[in-house]
């Protein structure tokens, strides 16, 4: 199955105080880490961002068609540009996702609009797989001013996969780097 990687790097990084994509963790920027995670599974890789500096690695930058809508706007614009039905979405600040976990998500796609991990009653819509079939619902939500990812995944045909065993194996799997002290 061909799959496109979508890296959400367009956030304002207000709590971090600097562009998260360029923060270094173990000699790599968070953007480099996300690209390295995606490239074994995803061709092509798209970067959702309104910052042209994010093209430093030569990957296509996709600006938001709907501005100031958060991750939903970025996912929308990238899904529209994607040439594959299936798309792996990851937030640039999710620095500890493992290759084998992405393989697991891909193996769960079947006839759904999305595959979203869940653990300890928490849904993780920014480390998930989305089908282009979800585009019409995303557009309706954006046009109505409803930008909540949880509303999207609850309104489309989403397969919620239990990721608790993955969290036990990789405790930092869903850790987001939002604040300087998170580093």
Biggest sheet layout: 8 strands, mixed
Counted beta strands: 10
Report low-confidence residues grouped into runs of 5 or more.
Answer: none
Radius of gyration: 15 Å
Protein structure class: alpha/beta
Our measurement of the CA-to-CA distance between the termini, rounded to an integer number of angstroms, reads 35 Å
Q: From N to C, what is the helix and strand string?
A: EEEHEEHEHEEEHHEH
CATH topology: Spore Coat Polysaccharide Biosynthesis Protein SpsA, Chain A
CATH top level label: Alpha Beta
CATH homolog superfamily: Spore Coat Polysaccharide Biosynthesis Protein SpsA, Chain A
Strand content: 15-25%
Oligomer designation? single chain
Helix content: 25-40%
The shape, in one word, is: globular
Name given to the CATH architecture: Alpha-Beta Complex
Mean pLDDT: 91
What topology does this entry show?
Blueprint (H helix, E strand, L loop, with lengths): L2 E6 L15 E2 L2 E2 H9 L6 E4 L11 E3 L8 H11 L4 E6 L7 H9 L6 E6 L2 E2 L3 E5 L3 H10 L4 H7 L2 E5 L1 H6 L14
Parallel strand pairs: 1-4, 1-6, 4-5, 7-10
Antiparallel strand pairs: 2-3, 6-9, 7-8, 7-9
Helix pairs in contact: 2-4
Could you list some keywords that capture this structure?
alpha/beta, 183 residues, Spore Coat Polysaccharide Biosynthesis Protein SpsA, Chain A
Question: What is the compact description of this entry?
Answer:
The protein is of the alpha/beta class and 183 residues long. 28% of the residues lie in helices and 22% in strands. The radius of gyration is 15 Å and the shape is globular.
